[in-house]
Amino acid sequence: MHVLYIGDVFGAPGLRATHRFLRDRRDDFDVVVANGENAAGGFGITRKHAEQLWGWGVDVITLGNHTFDQADAVDVLESSARIVRPANYPPGTPGLGHTTVTARNGERLTVGQVMGRVFLDQLDDPFVAADAIVEACPPERALLVDVHAEATSEKKVLGYHLRGRASAVIGTHTHVQTADEEIVDGTAYLTDVGMTGVQHSSIGMQFAEVHARFTTKRPHRFRPAVGPATLCAVHLDLNGRRARAIERVQWRDDGASDDG
Ligand SMILES: [Fe+2]
């Protein structure tokens, strides 16, 4: 099963790059998963963005620490099984922590997400939540776990924790693609898949306001970067619970920009 996992789609440039890439390449993959928690200018996702991503051929959207930034997130999460938020939110949180879809080749893929706790909100234990996702998934079925975390060490150790038990453990959130892909005991691992957005930016935001916040220590409203975006993704070849191959993808969208 050929799986494309698209990294954090950031704002209008990231959405545009995702649209253009999938318009030409969607048929190369059996299933497409995308992290959409930065679709709304960096802060969460709206119903409109979710429906755009689904319409372009994304099968499952993952979220993260920005899950509830937009007012309609609860409604989107409660009305669709094609979007997941971190499984280690407290019991009773709206939405799913994992979901299962049928790929174009007829095989099933479970997609789950956990969020790290180092330098992020103190959710429930991501290791326990990851174990619960594994236990909920039949042993022969392909399983992708998105590890949404800030600290490389925490992501690496979650990958170690899930080795041999997930088909793939793929990191998101830090927005810069790492080059440490490997397959250990049949589990494909990458610390961060990278951002789908404007790479010449402060992880998606224009430099000026972020620079001002760092240098003046006063609040400045961040603005999403504009210009050509790069789609960062990872292509996984999965055979049930075991990964055959993992390959990083970077595709620069040099098409015309309609940003202001
Ligand atoms: Fe994030």
- Note the gap between the termini: 40 Å
Tally of individual helices: 6
**What's the number of domains?**
1
Percent of residues in beta strands: 25-35%
Describe the structure.
- By secondary structure, the protein is an alpha/beta fold.
- The chain has a single domain (2-253), classed as Metallo-dependent phosphatases (Purple Acid Phosphatase, chain A, domain 2), CATH 3.60.21.10.
- It has six helices and twelve strands.
- It has helices at residues 11-25, 47-55, 73-79, 126-136, 152-162, 207-216; strands spanning 2-6, 31-35, 60-62, 83-84, 98-102, 108-115, 142-148, 168-172, 182-184, 187-190, 229-239, 242-253.
- Strand 2 (31-35), helix 2 and strand 3 (60-62) form a beta-alpha-beta unit.
- The protein is globular, with a radius of gyration of 17 Å.
- It binds fe (ii) ion.
- Fe (ii) ion is lined by residues 37, 64-66, 148, 173.
- Residues 37, 64-66, 148, 173 line the site of fe (ii) ion.
Structure characteristics:
260 residues, alpha/beta, 6-stranded mixed β-sheet, 6 helices, globular, binds fe (ii) ion
In short:
With 260 residues, the protein is of the alpha/beta class. 24% of the residues lie in helices and 27% in strands.
Secondary structure topology:
Blueprint: E1 2-6, H1 11-25, E2 31-35, H2 47-55, E3 60-62, H3 73-79, E4 83-84, E5 98-102, E6 108-115, H4 126-136, E7 142-148, H5 152-162, E8 168-172, E9 182-184, E10 187-190, H6 207-216, E11 229-239, E12 242-253
Parallel strand pairs: 1-2, 2-3, 3-4, 6-7, 7-8, 8-10
Antiparallel strand pairs: 1-11, 5-6, 9-10, 11-12
Bound molecules: fe (ii) ion.
